[in-house]
């Protein structure tokens, strides 16, 4: 195989390597870091289920958990660049550039008390003790936000932080007058909330609506309006007896805006399509819902999630069509450049190989003008060297058939010129000896 063949083979191998690398990069799964916490929480159980499902399905998007101390730390992890995704609660902490992918759980805070307490509206909480589950700490801030809106002086309300297990004993000991409850009202969480309320307030508690939820939501983008439907807590007669107007807060899966749209779209699709299967392992996953993709939504939605939810997801060729076009153009230019380089190299090799021909033409003139037989012998030695170089050039395919024919003709002429001149010089030498 000649040099041209080796160069062509090397180019083929290089192109194959580039294609293999491109294929590997295109098919390798994208791993996203997901900040979530605290350990043992429903959020972590949901995130772990996502990780296992994506791995099991061998999907193009994978998750790596970054465990944190809680919702605020998860938001901070995104701000510090330690995570690409996070599960957060906007009213607790929101990453500076976080964009919603999915709502993982929705909570409906409401006030509940006994019918004997005389509390019928939020304003009646003045001078009362209000209990609230103190984890996360954002629950305490949320009840303060509600009280402030209704112009209930915080100095006139004693807010008591409780663990879930302490609610019933505290109510029984008359340690609080009302409970600011926060319930997801879905699957396992709902049943836990129902049991807690029954243990604390009996079979017929009094529910206090937050009627101005719309106004509260307009003041705080982390708060939304909500409604607890009639009978959400079961029982007969149903509890509550009428739809209960209230506010809602959400746990959200948020992503950095810089994460590729197609990656987030694929993650959104995978989670939603696997929701039914995952809810068997983690019932709270039933509460996953799509966020509002309206342009005036209070919290921004990632473009990738919005594209999938609105049915505007770009296809593979939509995303990479321009790159394919540019790639073809680049390969064409590369091929033309390589062809030009090979042609130039071939021309240089041929020019070098033909240099001996110029010398042979000059040697023909020298042979005809030689005055001594020794000069002819030197020309024959030089001709032998040129012949050896010519044969080497032919072996390396630096010399084509036309060049070889030119050499053959020139060598014949040189050989004829040397032979004729040798005969003339020999005859002249013989004649000189006779005379």
Concise synopsis of the structure shown:
The protein is built from 14 helices and ten strands. The protein has 435 residues and is an alpha/beta fold.
Task: Name some characteristics of this structure.
D-Maltodextrin-Binding Protein, domain 2; 2 domains; alpha/beta; 14 helices; 435 residues
- SSE string: HEHEHEEEHEHEHEHEEHHHHHHH
The helix content, as a percent range, equals: 40-55%
How many individual β-strands?
10
The CATH topology of the largest domain, please? D-Maltodextrin-Binding Protein, domain 2
The CATH architecture of the largest domain can be given as 3-Layer(aba) Sandwich
| Strand content bin | 15-25%
* Largest sheet: number of strands, sense, barrel closure: 10 strands, mixed
Q: How large is the count of helical segments?
A: 14
Low-confidence stretches: none
The separation of the N and C termini measures 63 Å
Number of structurally distinct domains:
2
Shape: rod-shaped
Content-based structural category? alpha/beta
CATH superfamily of the largest domain: Periplasmic binding protein-like II
The CATH first-level class of the largest domain comes to Alpha Beta
* Whole-angstrom Rg: 44 Å
Mean pLDDT equals 84
């Amino acid at each position: 195989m000649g040099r041209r063949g080796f160069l062509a083979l090397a180019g083929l191998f290089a192109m194959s390597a580039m294609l293999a690398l491109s294929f590997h990069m295109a098919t390798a799964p994208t791993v996203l870091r997901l900040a979530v916490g605290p350990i043992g929480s429903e959020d972590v159980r949901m995130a772990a289920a996502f990780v296992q499902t994506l791995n099991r399905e061998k999907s193009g998007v994978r998750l790596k958990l970054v465990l944190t101390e809680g919702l605020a730390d998860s938001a901070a992890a995104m701000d510090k660049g330690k995570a690409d995704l996070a599960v957060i609660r906007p009213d607790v902490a929101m990453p500076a550039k976080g964009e919603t992918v999915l709502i993982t759980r929705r909570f409906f805070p409401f006030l509940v008390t006994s019918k004997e307490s005389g509390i019928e509206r939020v304003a009646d909480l003045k001078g009362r003790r209000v209990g609230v589950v103190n984890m996360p700490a954002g629950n305490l801030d949320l009840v303060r936000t509600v009280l402030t809106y209704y112009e209930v002086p915080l100095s006139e309300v004693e807010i008591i932080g409780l663990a879930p297990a302490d609610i019933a004993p505290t109510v029984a000991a008359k340690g609080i007058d009302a409970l600011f409850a926060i319930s997801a009202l879905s699957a396992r969480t709902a049943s836990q909330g129902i049991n807690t309320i029954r243990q604390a307030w009996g079979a017929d508690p009094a529910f206090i609506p937050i009627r101005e939820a719309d106004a509260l939501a307009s003041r705080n983008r982390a708060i939304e309006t909500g409604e607890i439907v009639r009978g959400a807590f079961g029982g007969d007669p149903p509890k509550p007896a009428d739809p209960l107007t209230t506010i809602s807060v959400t746990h959200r899966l948020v992503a950095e805006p810089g994460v590729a749209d197609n990656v987030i779209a694929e993650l959104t699709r995978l989670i939603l399509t696997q929701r039914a299967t995952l809810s068997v392992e983690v019932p709270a996953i039933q509460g996953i819902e799509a966020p509002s993709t309206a342009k005036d939504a209070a919290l921004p939605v990632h473009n990738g999630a919005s594209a999938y939810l609105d049915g505007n997801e770009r296809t593979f060729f939509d995303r990479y069509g321009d790159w394919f076009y540019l790639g073809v153009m680049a390969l064409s230019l590369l091929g033309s450049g390589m062809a030009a380089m090979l042609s130039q190299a071939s021309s240089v090799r041929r020019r070098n190989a033909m240099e001996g021909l110029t010398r042979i033409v000059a040697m023909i003139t020298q042979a005809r003008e030689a005055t001594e037989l020794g000069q002819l012998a030197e020309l024959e030695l030089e001709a032998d060297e040129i012949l050896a170089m010519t044969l080497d050039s032919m072996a390396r395919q630096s010399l084509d058939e036309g060049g070889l024919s030119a050499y053959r003709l020139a060598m014949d002429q040189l050989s004829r010129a040397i032979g004729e001149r040798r005969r003339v010089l020999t005859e002249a030498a013989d004649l000189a000896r006779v005379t």
